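Recap for those who missed Tuesday's class. We walked through two folding examples back to back. For each one, the amino acid string is listed first and its predicted structure tokens come directly after. Nothing is annotated here on purpose, so try labeling regions yourself before you check the end of the notes.
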Amino acid sequence: QVQLVESGGGLVQAGGSLRLSCEVSGRTFSMYTMGWFRQAPGKEREFVAAITWSGSSTYYADSVKGRFTISRDNANTSFLEMNSLKPEDMAVYYCAASRRYCLGSDSYGCYATQANYAYWGQGTQVTVSA
């Protein structure tokens, strides 16, 4: 049984920063691609970022590119560093783990697809005040 637990959410002013963490337990962390998704009130959950099992490749939604950074350590934790936060970044943020290894020209689309992630955390709220 794989369990994911997010932490680090909170209230921040626009322009501020937060660092989210996702701790994975239960299986070999290094075998999973880690993804971050978010869901704002009244909207569908959307892809934010992903990092492959080796850490060699990262993927970002256009809306966060240049402001957010995804990373992972050699133990069992994935991180999402969020800078220059905007009110539109306010959402519940979820981390997810995938055993899928995406190849080819549409690897971004593959890693951005929620159905490719078998395990999900419970989410952490990020609130950005204007």
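Example two. Treat it independently of the first, because the proteins are unrelated.
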Amino acid sequence: DVQLQASGGGLVQPGGSLRLSCAASGLSFDDHAIGWFRQAPGKEREGVSCISASGSSTYYADSVKGRFTISRDNAKTTVYLQMDSLKSEDTAVYYCAARWTIAADSSRYDEDEFDYWGQGTLVTVSS
């Protein structure tokens, strides 16, 4: 079975940092783009960032550009989301998702194009 295990969430003060991890198993990790999404209370789920299967291409939502950095370690089948300069509006449940692709350098996908989803990890930014 395919499993995506998101972890690393927690409570952090505004301006602080967190690093989320998405550990994947049961899939050919090198053939999957990995995306991070988030859903804040009372809001729709939105795309945050995505990294291509090759790791050569990344995408960031405008709201996190310059503050978040996505990376992947194929040897560990894990994707990371480094979140710096956190703001209260970053508070949400963060989910990782995987999409099989033959386009190794593509990192732009709609939410409904992802095949597998993790269970989510809560990030709370508050003083």
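Answers for example two:
The chain is about 0% helix and 50% strand.
The two ends are 40 Å apart (CA to CA).
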